[in-house]
Amino acid sequence: MNGSSPPRLRRNRSTVIEYSVPLFFLIAKDTPPLITVTDLRKVYQQGERTVVALDGVSLHVDAGRIHGIIGHSGAGKSTLVRCLTLLDRPTSGSVAVNNKELANVSDADLRTARRRIGMVFQHANLMDSRTTAQNVAFPLELIGTPKARIAEKVTALLELVGLTQFADAYPAQLSGGQRQRVGIARALSSDPDVLLCDEPTSALDPKTTDEILALIKSVRDRLNLTVLIITHEMNVVKQACDSVSLLEAGRIVEHGDIETVVANPTGRLSQALLPMPGKLPADLPAGVVLDLLYSGNQAADPVISSIARTFDVDVNVIAGSVEQLGEHQFAHLRIALPEGADITAITNHLLANGVAVTPKEAK
User: Fold this and answer.
1) What CATH number does domain 19-262 carry, 3.40.50.2000, 3.30.450.90, 3.20.20.110, 3.40.50.300?
2) Which part of the chain is the ABC transporter domain (predicted)?
3) Which one, of 312, 204, 255, lies nearest residue 67 by Cα?
4) What is the reported pTM?
5) How far apart are CA 238 and CA 226, in angstroms?
């Protein structure tokens, strides 16, 4: 930029966003979008057999958040993706993006609405005969964008995803992670409000997965997007998501912010995000075993030493972990207390300090 200051993108006098790369095509959004799904049902007929793929799915994704939908194969994730984009019409229920109901709009309005949803797939599905830049440009060509505008947007998008030096490379010359970056740039070419990522890292190695998730978070922050990640990998939820839904047999069985779901020690999402060993050590001395779960400021507090000092007891930490999930730190510890310890007083002390306590078993 020849030493000049970064371009400033103006929507009106009250909205100014700065970028370090010339993202001229971006629009600063005064009212960020929301995703709202209400009582969504999808029923298929396979011969005489009725298949309920989605059974009353309801969820709400706040603007600017990264929301994960996690579930095993057959849970209904692929059907949900198709219904969210109206590629498959739901049997009943509603889908609203940016406060616009999609189920009953005209075909022309639906095409416009779909352009506001960027799609990132498990495999980038690039066209082998096109270069990186040409793959990113393809959606813009389809809608008749002027060539100069296409060149401008493609240049900015490739810089955003870190592929400027690979603009003329063909898919066969790119790594799996680089191909996924091309897919993300292509998904952003239509200036979407929502980025819908369907298993975006399941075909990648762990290091590349980390890099792609970091890129998705960076894109969310810089472009003020709302992101929905469909995944079967709990590590994706741990690293990238602000909130999560557990999908099973076409139903949402758990849902909430990461901090909320983790704070429920008996919840399945909590146990999956902060797992503990299933069995106690066989040689554990007689006493009482407690599982402790705490977050935020408490995660950095000397909880164990506080118990030992306050109640003059030995505390044996037999398992545990401290993890950063989203913007919050969580600790999940399993401790053993000796016979004779005042368990009621210790439990009340922990609860008063914001620590969830779950007794395991006495020996």
Assistant:
1) 3.40.50.300
2) 35-274
3) 255
4) 0.81
5) 17
